[in-house]
């Protein structure tokens, strides 16, 4: 490919990226998800603490996550999320919640799994739950009824007796959940199932009815098989719920933030002002110092901004990103980093022209050289950001992420756009009008 | 724009100034200590914005009315017009949240403009550990990257400059009594990466120039390299400083947390690349006995120490301090070329000021 084609290809590529990013960004106010510190709400980091003398396993964390997800869904907050942080923590985000105290109480308690005699449940609640469970079985989603009120029903067995619960497939492809109980549990279970054949027993986690299977036969060895029209996902969830009864960890709120919505919005506004002022002053500085090239860097910075924000909007669409305040700090800092790559190229170009090279040959060698320096320097910053991202817990992760993304966007724009434009300008305009590029007449002839 | 400033001639002044600031900073850390935020100690911070005419006394009474068990009101600090930041020693999120709701009700405020952050007791250890791990990994990664890209002496002097920057940032935090938060640490780590930006620009030029034949001592060549890149170094630092200053001035509390550490670190980083990293590196090179010919100022082909060192090896001198990794990686071909040519050192050539490209 000859250099002209190469340039055209580079510009076409970055142009496409910019247009796609701009499209993703539209409309700006809603395209990037906002984190809790901006839209307001409750954000808690729950850390699992194993019982003394025990260590935390990955399975226990899976179960803890299931329990917490269950509870969060029970709170009825839309757009709530539960994420793993590190090896022992869960980040729970509840946007716009009013009753932070109640939510914290609900999240912090240990999972309470019970086997309940379904007949003992008060009629009105029972009817609600029956309707809900039937609908759920038929794949129709309805609103979940209120959790059962503790003490109004008879729970004959606690979840701590469950040793394990696994999903398996029966002959004919039916998905079932196999439950093993310890000997004490097996005894009570045996007695109950013997006298309750044909009756329903409910599996209840924190007052929420998870399943209400019918007893088909007495189960005396503590090895129970629960069958139904499960999907694999539902069966897995039920197994996780059953195992959660045996969860030997407590979850403690190690960091909790309740942010008022107005305060959060105000913080974002302050960040935006800082970003725009920073961008404006950087642009003015570049134009004053580098003249024509400075104005060129405006376009580079604009492309850079659109690209970075566009990728954030894309990630937001897949619920993989929410902009937090530290994230805003990362974006503002990356504006400076983006300007740096342009400066390295402009300075090198001017230097080589002053040493007597023609603009044409200087443009090629100087951009190559400057990019080498940029890449090394950016790489080191990237490594630091990567280290923060992998080690940090909580909001600081967002800072490291936007910074890393900023560095990647910066290099993309520098390689595809800034470099190409310098080369193209050097071949045409620069030698005709050296003055506007901060070169003396005669320098670039 | 090639300046002709004698940076290296003033190296003892620059190093002395850095040492002085560091000594004061470290002294402040040792004597006054760092003011760690609640993220490290556990406790609760309440922020009230637009509290209007509410006075500190009213807030104190409301807090007492809320009866936070076993918790003391550490301080109530005004933060701008009608804004207060209140620190309480309550580490239990549920209790803190309940108390806070009572306080908001008692003060007749809305929850719209308030913010309550509670940190549990064990959290500080986790945060501190992750900060220390991040710092160590960063330094290790940086050492590896620079050693591979340049040479080990550059990577070590770069890390010295980094630690210098970190020391100055923390020293200023100790002096000013500003609160150290996890955000401060994140900013500090970023600076470690970023302060290298300038250092790498200078080292790139030194490496490039040391491959040239110039009638200069290594020190002179390093000085010229700094002069060549001085303007761009200042400009890259300025363009990064501008947004950070904007954050410091316009950002709210959280953003200022980042911005303050970034601000000091950037200034210190720009200074240290010229005043700390480059002179230490150049002095180290000159002290290298195998870099001999130009170390003593005798006119010679200044190919940089790797070449000189390799030359020394070629002449049969035995090195005892282990070969420089960078020399082995980056300059092997140049060494071989020099070794083949027999390493004439005396008849110096005419300096070629053009950057090679």
Itemize the secondary structure elements and their pairings.
The complex is a heterodimer of chains A (445) and B (357).
Chain A: H1 3-25, H2 28-31, H3 36-39, E1 41-50, H4 58-74, E2 81-85, E3 89-95, H5 100-108, E4 113-117, H6 123-137, E5 155-158, E6 162-169, E7 175-181, H7 183-195, E8 201-205, E9 208-211, E10 223-227, H8 232-244, E11 249-259, H9 261-317, H10 325-354, H11 359-391, H12 396-427, H13 429-432
Helix pairs in contact in A: 1-9, 1-12, 4-8, 9-10, 9-12, 10-11, 10-12, 11-12
Chain B: H1 11-31, E1 35-36, H2 38-41, E2 43-48, H3 56-66, E3 73-78, E4 84-88, H4 93-106, E5 114-119, H5 123-149, H6 152-176, E6 179-180, H7 182-210, H8 218-250, H9 253-287, H10 292-295, H11 305-314, H12 325-330, H13 332-341
Notes on the protein architecture:
The complex is a heterodimer of chains A (445) and B (357). Chain A is built from 13 helices and eleven strands. Chain A has helices at residues 3-25, 28-31, 36-39, 58-74, 100-108, 123-137, 183-195, 232-244, 261-317, 325-354, 359-391, 396-427, 429-432; strands spanning 41-50, 81-85, 89-95, 113-117, 155-158, 162-169, 175-181, 201-205, 208-211, 223-227, 249-259. Chain A has a four-stranded antiparallel sheet with strand order 2-3-1-11. Chain A has a four-stranded antiparallel sheet with strand order 5-4-8-9, covered by helices on one side. The longest helix of chain A has 57 residues, at 261-317. The two termini of chain A are 28 Å apart. In chain B, helix 5 (123-149) runs parallel beside helix 7. With 357 residues, chain B is an alpha+beta fold. The chains are: A alpha+beta (445), B alpha+beta (357). Chains A and B meet through strand 1, helix 5, strand 11, helix 9 and helix 10 of A and helix 4, strand 5, helix 5, helix 7 and helix 8 of B.
